[in-house]
């Protein structure tokens, strides 16, 4: 289901209340003209999955955090930030997973230049 990012937090809480209590994955897709953040939720009791897609502008790339509804979102949101450059609003700490990027690179975006020099923090 496609939803607006302003409705994401409320819709996630509703889906959790409906039994979709397991967060399988959060990832993003770069379609160049827009980014799509994809959330996959599972209802373990009824063996059903629900995907939630949020389309965002690459120039205004942010989504609200889902940590309150799904604590496991922490690692996935950190990956969105580090690899796609998508800001996560409402997070208290922005620890990186893999690299100490200077915030000017998003390796999984299509416009990433692989042979460009990128500074890392010391």
Report on the structure:
The protein has 122 residues and is an alpha/beta fold. It has a single domain (2-89), classed as 2-Layer Sandwich (Beta Polymerase, domain 2). It has helices at residues 8-17, 73-84, and strands at 2-3, 22-30, 35-43, 48-56, 62-64, 87-89. The chain has a 4-stranded mixed beta sheet. Strands 5-6 form a two-stranded parallel sheet. The mean pLDDT is 88.
Number of separate strands: 6
Number of helices: 2
**Strand content bin:** 25-35%
Overall outline: globular
Features:
Beta Polymerase, domain 2; four-stranded mixed beta sheet; two-stranded parallel sheet; 2 helices; globular
Summarize the structure.
The chain has 2 helices and 6 strands. It is of the alpha/beta class. The termini are far apart.
Question: Topology, pairings included?
Answer:
Layout: E1 2-3, H1 8-17, E2 22-30, E3 35-43, E4 48-56, E5 62-64, H2 73-84, E6 87-89
Parallel strand pairs: 1-4, 5-6
Antiparallel strand pairs: 2-3, 3-4
